[in-house]
Amino acid sequence: MLRLVAGRIVSSIGTLLFVGLALFALTRSGPGSPARIVLGADATAEQIVQFEQAHGLDRPFLSQYAAWLGDVVRGDFGKSFVTGRNVATDIVSALPVTLSIVLFAFAIALVCGVGIGVLAALRPGGAFDRVSRFAAVLGLSIPAFWLGIVLIRFLAVDLRLLPPGGYFPLSAGLSLHLQSILMPSLSLAVYYIAVLARMTQASLQETLRGDYVRTARAMGLSSRQVVFYALVNALPPVINLAALSFGYMFGWALIIEQVFNIPGLSRALLNAISQRDFLLLQGIVFLFTAIFVFANLGADLINRVLDPRQRAAA
Amino acid sequence: MSGLAKTLCGLDWSGWLGAGIVGLILLAAIFAPLIAPYDPLGLDIEDRLAAPDMKHWLGTDQGGRDVLSRILFGARASLSVGIGAVLIGALIGVSAGVFAAYKGGLGEQIVMRVVDGVASIPLLVWAIAIVGILGVGPLPVGSLLLPNEVKIVVLVGCLFSPVFARVTYAVAKRIAGADYVRARFLQGASHWQIVIGDVLPNCLSPIIVQGTLLVAIGIVIEASISFVGLGVQPPQPSWGTMLSDARSAIYSGEWWLPAFPGLAISLTVIGFNLLGDAVRDLFDPRSDARTLVA
To answer: Looking at chain A from residue 208 to 247, which residues have their Cβ under 8 Å from any Cβ of chain B?
Structure first.
């Protein structure tokens, strides 16, 4: 068991290093070298050589990557050539904003998605099942950022229930904080509610058809107990999908933050793009990729704990 | 082809609805220059922000441009990015999957590890960042200037490829090890004949299903990238940029500006999702658990 877990962790880290290398190569493939961008078009060749030496840009590509990775592990994402600020500082100041929206959206998606899926699976073909299937197709098809625009129009402009945009940190009070992230999180969550509800419904319905469920019923277990045991067995694919969802949510959060004018990592990333701030961009994208990889690793490990067969196989 | 025709006959009502929506939007995109009532780029200061009426069915925008015409032309950007990315992803993914399954050994290990690597990339974040790095200007290839969308198509296509590689690999692995395929080899069939005659036809149905569902995801991604200004460049019409331009109208009350492009995206995505779900139910009713997410 321990060896299997360790192997899975090592392979995740290997994947992240490999993907990080691709990112590192891509960020350097754009037009213009960092030195040209910072020093301007009329910098002399000598100035450029000096700049590249000072920032280690003249070293071999792989050794630059290794050095950067070594710093990242220690929480140092480098110092931006453009702004002169520490990239880590910029990320740390914007991350809580994005994180609070994503976490809230993830909680909504998990509770509503799994809840709807379970209710739908209990009576296949019933009214709730049919309505939820139809709603799921709608939920899958409405782009989050358009939903955000529609919500602003109805909830903020027409009904004046919620602020149309902006962000209040938790330190400004829980009520203000929740009010400012409710609409963004809801717009982000709807697609994932649909995805998770479909998966839960399909997986649980499949499990409930199993022979052991009939045996359990015949033994006189209450239907609540039966559904509970079936749900535990139906969960692994849902957990995998939830982890994928969590990782992907950060991408859509970038768009949602633009809609609601929220100063999260989206603003930092788009600034990095417009100022050609390679290190900041690289840091943000690497962070999102790491979250994605480790969320999937976490789901795998949870499933190993949940499933005795996988434990025994180790 | 007879298999495909038979499939279409077996579609349920939601599948037909999806096929109908997809067909209509495809026609609208192809024949946009013929059916659009106005020039999608044509400014008309006299007719700015006109509400929908008989002259402009879906109203006009801040520059007096006809919203209906822009939506019809915008369908071209959405569909070409969505479908183009799926074709590129399928080409790369199917080749990789067949190669790994048929070849085996070290080649299989390397290819499938790379597939795992690409699959662990959060799609939208990378798409935004890489297009941002490369710049939104047109891409010079020889004497041609390719629009920014080409970058998005190739990028999203590469990021879609693991989906195809994995379904193809799973099927091809099973087929390549089957007794009848070994018998075919002993009869003197070449590797190419086996791959094209036996392996690929068996992979076709999951590829079609995943491809249809991925077009829907590709369309939303194109709209999102255009929404943040890194996709289709103004003044060219795209549903994402139209929504981005419509943000101020949320407050000033020109409801048709955000409403119609958003409805166009949703309707198109519903069409592809309904069609993809229905085709999957036909081919393999038990595969419901393989849900795609982005």
So the answer is: 237, 241, 244-245, 247
What does the domain layout of chain A look like in residue ranges?
Answer: 2-73, 94-201+235-313
Residue B174 is encoded by which pair of tokens? 């099973």
Instruction: For chain A, 314 residues long, give each residue's pLDDT as a single digit of tens.
Output: 788 889 889 999 999 999 999 998 888 877 777 777 777 777 788 888 888 888 778 888 888 899 999 999 898 888 888 888 889 999 999 999 999 999 999 999 999 999 999 999 998 889 999 999 999 999 999 999 999 999 999 998 889 888 888 899 988 889 999 999 999 999 999 999 999 999 999 999 989 998 989 999 899 898 889 999 999 999 999 999 999 999 999 999 999 999 999 999 999 999 999 888 888 999 999 999 999 999 999 999 998 888 777 665 54
Surface of A (63-92) touching B: CB under 8 A: none
Cα separation, A262 vs A152, in Å, equals 14
A136 Cβ under 8 Å from any chain B Cβ = no
Residues B289, A285: C-beta atoms closer than 8 Å: no
CB contact under 8 A, B270 and A198: no
Superfamily of domain A94-201+235-313: MetI-like (1.10.3720.10)
Tell which phi-psi region holds residue A43, choosing left (phi > 0), alpha (psi between -120 and 50) or beta: beta
Which helix (H) or strand (E) element contains residue B144? strand B144-146
Residue of B nearest to A18 (CA): B117
Q: Among A190, A187, A184, which residue's Cα sits nearest to residue A98?
A: A184
Residue ranges and CATH numbers for the domains of chain B are 12-48+56-289 (1.10.3720.10)
Distance of residue A91 Cα from the nearest chain B Cα, in angstroms: 15
What is the C-alpha separation between B145 and A4, in angstroms, rounded? 51
Question: Which two three-digit tokens encode residue A8?
Answer: 């899975």
